[in-house]
Amino acid sequence: MVTRVPVARPDAIRRHNLGLLLGQVHRHGELTRAELTQRLHLSRSTTGALVAELTERGLLDERVPSGGQRAGRPSHVVGPRRDGPYAVAVDVDITHITTAAVGIGGHVLARHVVTTADGPCRPEAAAAFVVQASEALSAQIDPGAWPVGMGVSVPGTVTRHTGMVEFAPNLNWRHESFGDMLSAVAPRGLPVTIGNDADLAVLAEHLRGNARDCTDVIYLMGRIGVGAGIIVDGRPLHGHEGHAGEVGHNVVDASGPLCHCGKRGCVETYIGDSALLTLAGREALPTPENVAAVFADAAAGDQRAAAAVRSVAAALGRTVASLVNVLDPQRVLLGGSLGGVLDFAKDDIAATLEAYSMSATRQSVHLEAPGLGDDSSLLGAAELAFADLLVDPVGSH
Ligand SMILES: [Zn+2]
Questions:
Q1: Which of 189, 234, 350, 357 has the smallest number of Cβ neighbours within 10 A?
Q2: CA 347 to centroid of ligand 1, rounded, Å
Q3: pLDDT at 360 over 90
Q4: What distance in angstroms lies between residue 328's CA and the mean position of ligand 1's atoms?
Q5: CB-based burial of residue 124 (10 Å sphere; 0-12 exposed, 13-18 middle, 19+ buried)?
Q6: CB atoms < 10 A from the CB of 199, how many?
Q7: Residue 70 CB neighbours (<10 A)
Q8: Starting from the edge strand earliest in sequence, which strands make up the sheet with 331-336, in order?
Q9: β-strands 85-92, 146-154: how paired?
């Protein structure tokens, strides 16, 4: 009996290698041909041919470094180009919509922010803002640059393959086909992909932020709502429907404060922005500015503000303890306003984490701020837009 083994054709191998090489530059920035040859375990001539093709296709640039070289020919440096591909990355937050042009390497080339502080906007209006912003952005960057796709971060549960936002309680969105709305109006027929903000934040931190060296990491995102992006064994944890990580709506006290989701005593009613403002005695909208004012006042010695941050820190420590007990991560990144809690009250978080987690797992976990600051979700959204290009740089455009 003859067994037929499927063999990858040379064309498929070449395209696969083009994707790997482009991915190396995307992840690590400028690299010499010699470094690429070594990292990809290819021959020098194969690397040279791949670089030549990616350069010819306008995806990368190659230059000969000037000066500083000793004997021998300098190795060419391969990197992103100003007139190359870019992602339209969108971060929909409750009070802001940020749209950015992000180049290969995760560089923000230009950004546009719309404030929606009067209240969360409807998805149709959000889609219109995004289209206006992406047109404004294209006028701000190199006229030769070209978009490959649109990636969108939303603070809610998202079914990625349909682009459906199932439930974003703080936006008051329920079962909204936001992906279809954006696809219908996206400039140049750009493909649109949507993801959850915390899922995208952990993706970006794992690729180029403070979780680069981790196989197991949790990004706990706290804004008005609270959610987790989780990587286990180096892979994103999405769950069956892609809805995993809704830590903010775990109920810790069924008779607790009313949550936007309709239940009582959810985690985010203790550690979200509204909880912090209430504890600080402020009847203010939960905007980033008002939340930042509580942290600033706490640091300046305001007793009530300091007590509010400490109270949130204690509840946050218990939340992290539950996650650590289940997932045993190396690192927990605290993003959004939880980064402010970490700054002011790391000891309080650590004390409750100590008290409520199993000690063996707790000892190995580190609490840190995100390396990409407030841009983690935005840069994760760019990764959604780049995904097809990085798998097959030839077939995707
Ligand atoms: Zn809830």
A1: 189
A2: 27
A3: no
A4: 25
A5: exposed
A6: 28
A7: 5
A8: 235-236, 226-232, 217-222, 331-336, 366-368
A9: parallel
